[in-house]
């Protein structure tokens, strides 16, 4: 069973969330133009930051050292704040709406992307001065931005269905990924930079082997059928063996990257899921949605929930409807798979009763001759 904590976080859509301060806190940014800090243990709001934004906050991200956080907004601005005092340290402007922002892991730079001019800006995190500005990096709106683990590249995704790696030393795009048939909404990279993931409105997630470059000849590995709606966000686990994704179908899915299969699907949000994140110890997930909530999911016992595999490889995914709660769910298929009619939660909640019933029905079937007209 997956334990869940629900935090009624904001009065409007929650557009970003992340673990903070060694997984003890959660930082969230919202369409209500505030940033909030919550205690993981009890869900209590520790601090509300009333920013000077005049429109929706699209993203809020903290620095690794916990000293400051940055926000981006539809009001076209990128703003840096001091965590302790809440004081605004600096503000910068895009020509179009600021859609996304991130702080480099060493705390020295901020990256942000916009619409209209489809521009990537790199800011000095201390002064707010622009270090690099790259207009028209994409042919359409930049949807997400992140620094590579070594802070030598900035990675962007776009509504133009592409992903680009911009090298900060050469000031050139060194990798250009194409493969999705709709907007690329989000991306993430493993700490060793071997695997790279992109999420898209085409309902798929692509895993790119950028270390060997095999995607150039074989294309990416596609994780399909986990979501019934556009995939809005994705994030690798710290060890790179799992990936979590969120969708406009209101679900969160955890993927087994090695076996290329859905590990578990989490349901509970009542609107579009906007962001997801693993804790550093990988026992918790956090997700946020347009329903105004931040949710915490305890997945430390997720390995006890069975995944149907054959020779450690998934054959396919079947979407069916749970006879108990009525919600759709997916499972891996095997040639000899019996039809399991309950979703993962209902199977776990009633596992003893369910399998006892199956054993009883199986015993009764063995005692009954189906060819006997009297049966």
Characterization of the model:
This protein starts with a strand and ends in an 8-residue tail after the last helix. The chain has helices spanning 215-218, 344-349, 351-367, and strands spanning 3-8, 14-20, 25-30, 34-39, 45-50, 57-62, 68-73, 77-82, 88-93, 98-103, 109-114, 120-124, 130-134, 142-147, 153-158, 162-167, 172-178, 184-189, 195-200, 205-209, 221-223, 231-236, 242-247, 251-256, 261-267, 273-278, 284-289, 293-298, 317-321, 328-332. It is globular. Helix content is 7%, strand content 47%. A hairpin with a 4-residue loop joins β2 and β3 (25-30). The strands form eight sheets. It has a four-stranded antiparallel β-sheet with strand order 1-28-27-26, with no helix packed on it. It is mostly beta strands and 375 residues long. The chain contains three helices and 30 strands. The model is unreliable at 308-319, 329-340 and 347-375 (pLDDT under 50).
């Amino acid at each position: 069973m997956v334990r869940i904590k629900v935090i009624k976080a904001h009065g409007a859509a929650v557009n970003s969330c992340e673990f903070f301060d060694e997984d003890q806190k959660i930082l969230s940014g919202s369409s209500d133009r505030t940033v909030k800090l919550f205690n993981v243990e009890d869900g209590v709001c520790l601090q509300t930051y009333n920013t000077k934004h005049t429109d929706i906050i699209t993203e809020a991200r903290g620095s690794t050292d916990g000293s400051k956080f940055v926000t981006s907004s539809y009001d076209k601005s990128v703003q840096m704040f001091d965590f302790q005092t809440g004081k605004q340290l600096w503000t910068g402007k895009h020509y179009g709406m600021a859609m996304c922002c991130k702080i480099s892991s060493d705390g020295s730079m901020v990256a942000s992307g916009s619409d209209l001019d489809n521009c990537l800006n790199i800011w000095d995190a201390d002064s707010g001065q622009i270090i690099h500005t790259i207009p028209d990096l994409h042919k359409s709106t930049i949807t997400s931005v992140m620094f590579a683990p070594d802070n030598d590249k900035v990675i962007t995704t776009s509504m133009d269905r592409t992903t680009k790696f911009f090298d900060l030393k050469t000031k050139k795009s060194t990798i250009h990924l194409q493969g999705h048939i709709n907007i690329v909404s989000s991306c993430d990279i493993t700490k060793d930079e071997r695997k790279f993931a992109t999420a898209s409105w085409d309902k798929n997630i692509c895993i790119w082997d950028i270390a060997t470059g095999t995607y150039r000849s074989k294309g990416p590995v596609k994780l399909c059928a986990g979501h019934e709606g556009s995939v809005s966000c994705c994030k690798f686990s710290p060890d790179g063996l799992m990936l979590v994704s969120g969708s406009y179908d209101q679900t969160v899915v955890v993927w087994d990257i090695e076996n290329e299969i859905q590990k578990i699907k989490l349901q509970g949000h009542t609107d579009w899921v906007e962001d997801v994140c693993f804790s550093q110890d990988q026992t918790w997930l956090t997700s946020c949605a347009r329903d105004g909530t931040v949710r915490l999911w305890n997945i430390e016992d997720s390995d006890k929930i069975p995944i149907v595999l054959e020779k450690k490889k998934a054959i396919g995914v079947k979407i069916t409807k749970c006879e108990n709660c009525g919600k759709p769910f997916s499972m891996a298929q095997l040639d000899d798979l019996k039809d399991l009619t309950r979703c993962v939660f209902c199977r776990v909640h009633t596992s003893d009763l369910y399998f006892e019933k199956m054993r009883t029905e199986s015993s009764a079937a063995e005692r009954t001759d189906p060819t006997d007209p009297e049966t």
